[in-house]
Amino acid sequence: MSSEDAALEALVALGDPVRRGLYRHVSGTPGEVGRDAAAEAVGVSRSLAAFHLDKLVEAGLLEVCFRRLSGRSGPGSGRPSKLYRRAEGERTVSVPPRSYDTASRLLAEVVEQAGLDGELQAAARAAGEASGGEPGCEADPVEVLRARGYEPFWDEGTLRLNNCPFHALADQFPALVCGMNLAGIEGLLKGLPGGQDWSAAMDPLPHGCCVTLETAKRTGPGAEPEAAAGAPPSHAEP
C-alpha cells in the first residue's frame, strides 16, 4: 500500500464519530490510555470502545502496549492491560499529491547550513506576535495553542504540549526547528492580550513538544484561586 493510500485509509477510519472521539482522547492524553478510561471519556461501553480502538490501531493511528496498571509483578499480579497511545508519524493527504515536506526540508537545510538560525527565530517571533494580536484571537493562551495544532495539558503548575506540529521536520533539524518553535510561542504570548503573565522555556518531552509554559497566575488542576485585593492569601485546600 502506498503512503497516500495509507493516509486515505486513516482518514476513512476517522469517519465514525465515536472513533474520532476515542482518537482525540487518546492522542490528547499524555502516556497510555486503557479501554475503561477511553470508554468513559466518550460515553460508550467498554466493548464498543475496544472495537473502535483496535480499528484505529489497524489504521496506523494508534499503537498498543501491555502493562500491569497495579505496578506489581509476579504471581497474583494479574494480566497486563492493553493500553493505547498515539502512533508516531503523521498522515497527510492532498489531492492531487503535493510535496510541501520536500520543500520544507530543503529550506531548513539551507537555513541551517547558512547559519541563519537567529534570523529564523526573529521571523518566527514576529509572526507569532502578529498572529496573537489578530482581531478576534482568544485571550486564553491554552485555547490559542490548541487551535494551532498543539495539545496542551497541565502537569501540576506547568503547561506541557503533548505533540509537536513540526514533528517530522524537528526530527531532522532539532536545534533549528525547536528554536523556531520556542521563538514563535514567545512571540505569540507577547501578542496575546492574556499572554503577558506567561513564559515559555525549552524543556522537551520524550514524545511531545520541546516547549513548556508557565504562568504567574496559577491556573490548571490543583491551582489555588487568586486572593481578592487586600485579602490575606488563603491556605485552604482547593
What are its keywords?
238 residues; alpha+beta; Arc Repressor Mutant, subunit A; four-stranded antiparallel beta sheet; three-stranded antiparallel beta sheet; globular; disordered C terminus; Helix-turn-helix domain-containing protein; ArsR-like_HTH
Folded structure, characterized:
The chain has 2 domains: 3-86, Arc Repressor Mutant, subunit A, CATH 1.10.10.10; 100-215, no CATH class. Helices cover 44% and strands 13% of the residues. It has 9 helices and 7 strands, in the order ααβααββαααββααββ. The protein has helices spanning 3-13, 17-27, 35-42, 46-58, 100-113, 117-132, 141-147, 167-172, 174-191, and strands spanning 33-34, 62-67, 81-86, 152-155, 158-161, 198-202, 211-215. Strands 4-5-7-6 form a 4-stranded antiparallel sheet. β6 and β7 (211-215) form a beta hairpin. α2 (17-27) packs across α4 (46-58), α3 (35-42) packs across α4 and α6 (117-132) runs parallel beside α9 (174-191). The longest helix is centred in the C-terminal third of the chain and has 18 residues, at 174-191.
Q: Gyration radius, to the nearest Å? A: 21 Å
Q: Which strand-content bin applies to the residues?
A: 5-15%
- What kind of sheet is the major sheet? 4 strands, antiparallel
What strand order characterises the main sheet?
Answer: 4-5-7-6
Share of residues in helices = 40-55%
Low-confidence stretches: 225-238
Mean pLDDT: 81
What pattern of helices and strands is seen along the backbone? HHEHHEEHHHEEHHEE
Q: Oligomeric status of the shown chains?
A: single chain
What count of helical segments does DSSP give? 9
| CA-based shape | globular
Query: What distance separates the N and C termini?
Result: 53 Å
**Total number of beta strands:** 7
Q: Pairing-aware structural class of the strands and helices? A: alpha+beta
Summed up, the domain count is 2
Organism: Streptomyces poriferorum
InterPro entries: ArsR-like_HTH (IPR011991)
Protein name: Helix-turn-helix domain-containing protein
Pfam family, one: HTH_20
